[in-house]
Amino acid sequence: MAETESKYAYKKKTAWDVLTKSQIDEAFAYSNDYIAFLNAAKTEREAVSIINKTAMKAKKRVMVNRGKAAAVVVPGSKPVEDGIRLVVAHVDSPRLDLKQIPLFQDSESNLALFETHYYGGIKKFHWVVIPLALHGVIVKKNGETVTFAIGEDPHDPVFSVPDLLPHLAHEVQDDKKLDDAIKGESLDITVGSQPVRRAVKEKIKTAILEKLHKDYDITEEDFISAELEAVPAFKARDVGFDRSLIGGYGQDDRASAYAALRAVCGLNHPMHTAIALFVDKEEIGSEGNTTAQATIFLRTLIHEVDPKADIDTVLLHSRTISADVNSAVTPNYTEVFELKNASSLGCGVAMSKYTGHGGKYAANDASAEYIADIRALLDKAKVPWQTGEIGKVDKGGGGTVAKYISRLGMEVIDMGPAVLSMHSPFELTSKVDVYSAFLAYKAFLNS
Ligand code: MN
Ligand code: MN
Q: What residues of the chain score a pLDDT lower than 70?
């Protein structure tokens, strides 16, 4: 008798059911490598640096754009005008960026602090009272770059945004709406408290500046040409008695980025030219020359594969997976999800026809024909997958790079693992889902 009801409806089958026993073992081994990647790549620059090294080690062609975006290209046996297979993931994640003039002394509390401007969509209360590490670069006027990653080694100091004790929080925090309780401007990071023993105006600030000058040969003005990011200092690690989950910062979207990297580096002689593209600034709207909207980088990559190819023809015949994470059904908050269409942890890579918000606004709405092909491809490769949407209609929403890529005339579908506690300092994924994303991208790039 034919099975007429979808096996994906109401999550009848999880990835744990679909994968073989040895594949589940592989998923756990893969997750160990992925956790190491998360711990080594806490910023877009660090991710790009590792992507570059990994691709070179795999003897793959890799190109880097301004240290913040990259692409790995594997030429196919067919002419490039037959189209490419593109997987795009972003390597930036929400965090606290330092302002251009960050350092100040708060003489009432006797502390030196850094001013920040948060980057991306955060719940501000997640970012106070946790240990923070400082990553990034300071580029001096002479062009010399000082690279930072302070707070990762167990012997390093860490930094932290102080918060008010509950005893006094009643009026200024507890009675307010959650989003108003902590102001963006109050996300100042404590960086020191020991004054110099001299009669100068701001003794603690002076001490910090002298320390920075001694250790890194930088001045206060050098912060003006810097990109310093405060990120959670703790490590990604296994979660649960059964170790089935991964907790860590930046899994949106480094879960997809790592899966795309592993998939493209394992490719040998694909039919169509395969490209894994890693972009920046997705979390703030993909504006800028290192983003999915800077399509000149993609055009340059195609030109390098075949200088004679007509790039518009290539793009029109091409297929893309917008590799980005999806929201996972969250315990205690199931009322914001329409459960038949939501993605859940452990049910495989999540495929979204559209993202956007209210009335599908600002969504790439993938065509039925393309989805049919992708569905067939996933089933043929025995990849566990589910459908996914961000949440209930009119409850909120969000976007990915899919809409920018689809403007080029390519077919585009959103696909990536589901994430719990998305955009928080400690996001959760399922090991079988991140592995399913890898299997999906691999099958796609080989198609
Ligand atoms: Mn994302
Ligand atoms: Mn995001």
A: 1-12
